[in-house]
């Protein structure tokens, strides 16, 4: 089944939640997609706030080559401190990533207590392929594979109250998507700092604005705070319209980017950048999740128009 001689494993590490039972759903969904593509001998999910926990996961693997991909948006406390410590990657130092906040790629380390080689990858949120997932999220929420003309796009993040790199990740993708010229306007907006998502309509001239939160999973930020802050609804429990009209602007609110199926591709791209033998799987996953490889462009979105 595998062309490569050494068994390779993928570990997807995510935050999880004690409070929100849906927090881990995207992690399991993307792991299943990757499992089905057959690139790895083993695929495991591990969490900080749920079982199976970070601490045990490497000990459950038989493979010698292990690729660890953090399902996190930005480089920061979790990716630089918590995960390497819990996985017992003793030679780890954030300098190994040689990053200014958005360009971590990978570091090859030894998990000393089990003698396995671990390729510790940068978070999914700063990979270039995330820009494609944000655009695909806009396609999904509008039902239009060509969405862009006459539309603004807001990429929303938490903001720097927590970590300076969190804003960098948001701005990075907003800049990349703006450069493509696909949308009339692209803005990075935040929950906790200026420019604030509360004032979303102030930052756009377009009549239609797609709002995509750069979060891994849907939780209270994306399902309660942001819809209420933007004025889509007075009470998140009653839901909101898509699109909802606020101050004369149609707001297409997409929910967390991490629930988009194409996220599985970003996880694989991270592993590929670290040397994993996954090219065939990447092609298969892109085809299955409607990714941006050219041969599937014309075949997509034939339904639902």
UniProtKB/TrEMBL annotation:
GO biological process, one term: cobalamin biosynthetic process
Gene3D superfamilies for the chain: 3.40.50.1400
Keyword annotations of the record: Cobalamin biosynthesis, Cobalt, Lyase, Metal-binding
InterPro entries reported in the protein's UniProt record: CbiX-like, Sirohydro_Cobaltochel/CbiX
Record flagged with keyword Transferase: no
GO molecular function, one term: lyase activity
Lyase is among the record's keywords: yes
Superkingdom assignment: Archaea
Protein's name in the database: Sirohydrochlorin cobaltochelatase
